[in-house]
Structures are given as C-alpha cells and as structure tokens.
Amino acid sequence: MYKFLATLIYFVTNILLRKVKVIGKENIPKNEAFIVTCNHRSMVEIIILAMALYPREVHYMAKQELFKGKLLDKFFRSVNAFPVNRANPGPSTIKTPVKLIKENKIVGIFPSGQRADNAPMKKGAATISVMSKSKLLPAAYEGPIKFKDVIFGKEKCYIMFGEPIDSQSFTAQYKKNEAIEEITQTLESKTNTLIATLKHEA
User: Fold this and answer.
1) 3-state class of 148 per DSSP?
2) Scanning 14, 26, 82, 168, which has its CA 20 to 30 A from the CA of 91?
3) What is the structure's pLDDT at 117?
4) In sequence order, which residues have a C-beta less than 8 Å from that of residue 198 and are 6 or more positions away?
C-alpha cells in the first residue's frame, strides 16, 4: 500500500503540481538506515517529508490511538506506521524502530510529540539513535497545513534537511544518558535553526 500511495502522491505533488521544494538533499545519508525527524504542525508534513525522501520508504512512529479498530490498524500498518503508547512507553517503543534500522530502513519521528514549532524535544529520537548506532537527519517543514491548500492553493511546500547528527560521535565522548541529552539538545537547536531559515526562505 505504501509504495502505491507514495508513487501516486509523488506524481501529483512533485511532478504534476510541482508543489514540493526540497532544500539540503545533499545531507540525506545514502545507502544506509537513519532516523529522520521534523517539526510537527499538522498531518501535511508527514506526507511531504515522505515525498522529499521518495523513493525510499519511511516507517513512521505514530500514537497508538490511531490504530483503534481492525480497519485502521490494518491501514496504518500497510503504510509503514507502527504504534507507540506515548503515555506509558514500553520496550517496543525502542525495540521496533531499532529493528527497522537494523533492516536498513528509515524511521520517521516527530520528537516534539506535539503540533507546534519550536516545541521542546523529547529524548526518544536520541535514545533510538544511540541504541541503534544510527544517524539522525534533522528536517523542517514550512508551508500549508491543510491538504486542500496543498492541492488547490498557491503556496509551496518546503522541506529543508540539515546535516546529519552522528550519535556515535556523542557516545564516544559521553556516558549513555549524557550522550542522549547532548544529542537531544543538538537536534533541537538544529531543528529550530532550520525552521527559522525556512521561514525566511519561503
């Protein structure tokens, strides 16, 4: 399902309407697994971020409330989403994304956990990067926050990628918990810089 929908949406947004502008493509790690993070204001950036990384697939961490009922559960899993209990995170919160990264896949996380720019980052993305020894690719989105505006509006959708954060360079200098804290602060700083830059560019 993911491949079909991604190809269809990519054709509409990137080729037919030419609505998606990607900045910093050179920062995307090639031929390796990584964690991509982004600011979160709506459902739109989830789709646009995936389009910016097309044809590679993104496996998104999503709140478990979205998976209620067999039909919704089946749909979200078919588009590469996996559930996380944000109120009481268990071992699967780490285990599932680490497994995906070991399978050379991209994991998508919105580390603020809420729909707002410049929101404080939670430590989940940094923890997973340390546990999986993978890079974090910070990204920022600027543009419409409603799908109807993406299709019918004049405003473009911007995604900007920053330089990857290598978790292993932090674990080489700090103990595990300190490394996670430092990575989280670095990710927050880089993301806020990307957001500010995009607001000026867009």
Assistant:
1) helix
2) 168
3) 67
4) 23, 140, 141, 142, 158, 160
Position 100, amino acid: L
Q: Buried (b) or exposed (e) across 42-70, using 16+ Cβ within 10 A? A: eebbbbbbbbbbbeeebbbbbeeeebeee
Question: What does the alpha-carbon distance between residue 24 and residue 158 come to, in Å, rounded to a whole number?
Answer: 11
pLDDT by residue (tens digit) across 181-190? 999 999 999 9
Give residue limits of the domains in the chain.
2-201
Sequence-ordered strand ranges (E) for the chain:
20-23, 34-38, 58-63, 82-84, 106-109, 135-142, 157-161, 165-166
pLDDT, tens digit, 9 for 90 and up, residues 138-161: 999 999 999 999 999 999 999 999
Q: Topology of domain 2-201, per CATH?
A: Glycerol-3-phosphate (1)-acyltransferase (3.40.1130)
pLDDT, tens digit (0-9, with 9 covering 90-100), for 42-77? 999 999 999 999 999 999 999 889 899 999 999 999
Q: Which of 165, 160, 164, 167 is nearest to 193 (CA)?
A: 160
Q: Is the per-residue pLDDT at 116 higher than 70?
A: no
